[in-house]
């Protein structure tokens, strides 16, 4: 297997010593630009790893994150041109900032497949989220034998027509949008009168079955836990390190 290994072991975090390792492997046959966002307003630690970088095909980057890494996400950006300002500098997943996303408001523009993490001291909570749509296949594995979260399928080509896109210069769909993002329907977005698990079942989300059938081990809608295959945990005591693979 060919690897262009770009290892960056950043053991110091902005708010404490990092004690876990996150590895990001781009197994796609093209360059992507991974990005990372950590909500630094809820008391957790923030990694010192830059919030965005270029990842050529087959490249690997490893960095440390703090034991109390909270409300964090990593995603991939596609077809980027950072000479353009603002969040539309990538065809999918762009963020405020440039190559490095703004640490305060640098979440990705949908559609974007997300790896989400929350280390609460008792458990590591993690998932592959399609709530904001999908732009790249993704898998989360770990060193502790805990469950695998994944959406290993490129959802763009077979995406329902009203959700398909955006498209690259060749006309290929590089994303599949969520019905919520396309329509703003409260029953799909779990907002307004549908803001609870009881009032926002997955049966009210058009195209839920397309995403969940293709990627059963992913988090597809805002209250997807009842599916039993959406949100995963690993006991903190196992001290798992995690690998996020794009295009597994």
From TrEMBL:
It comes from the Eukaryota. Gene3D superfamilies: Thaumatin. InterPro entries: Osmotin/thaumatin-like_sf, Thaumatin. This is Thaumatin-like protein. Residues 1-19 form the signal peptide. The keyword Transport does not apply. Disulfide bonds join 28-247, 80-90, 95-101, 146-234, 151-215, 159-176, 180-189, 190-200. It comes from Ephemerocybe angulata. Keywords: Disulfide bond, Signal.
């Amino acid at each position: 297997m060919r690897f262009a290994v770009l290892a960056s072991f950043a053991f110091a975090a902005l708010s404490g010593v990092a004690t876990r390792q996150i590895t990001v492997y781009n197994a796609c046959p093209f360059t992507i630009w991974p990005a990372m966002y950590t909500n630094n307003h809820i008391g957790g630690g923030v990694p010192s790893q830059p919030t965005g970088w270029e990842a050529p095909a087959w490249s690997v980057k490893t960095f440390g994150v703090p034991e109390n890494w909270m409300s964090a996400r990593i995603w991939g950006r596609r077809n980027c041109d950072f000479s353009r300002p603002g969040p539309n500098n990538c065809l999918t997943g762009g963020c405020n900032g440039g190559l490095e996303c703004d640490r305060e408001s640098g979440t990705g523009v949908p559609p974007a497949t997300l790896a989400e993490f929350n280390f609460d001291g008792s458990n590591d909570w993690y998932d592959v989220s399609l709530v904001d749509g999908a732009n790249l296949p993704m898998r989360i594995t770990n060193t502790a034998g805990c469950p695998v979260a994944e959406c290993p399928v490129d959802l763009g080509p077979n995406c329902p027509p009203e959700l398909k896109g955006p498209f690259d210069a060749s006309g290929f769909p590089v994303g599949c949008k969520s019905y919520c993002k396309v329509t703003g329907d409260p029953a799909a977005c779990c907002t307004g009168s549908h803001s609870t698990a009881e009032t926002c079942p997955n049966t009210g989300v058009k195209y839920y079955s397309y995403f969940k059938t293709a990627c059963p081990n992913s988090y597809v809608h805002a209250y997807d836990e009842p599916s039993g295959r959406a949100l995963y945990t690993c006991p903190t005591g196992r001290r798992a390190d995690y690998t996020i693979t794009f295009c597994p």
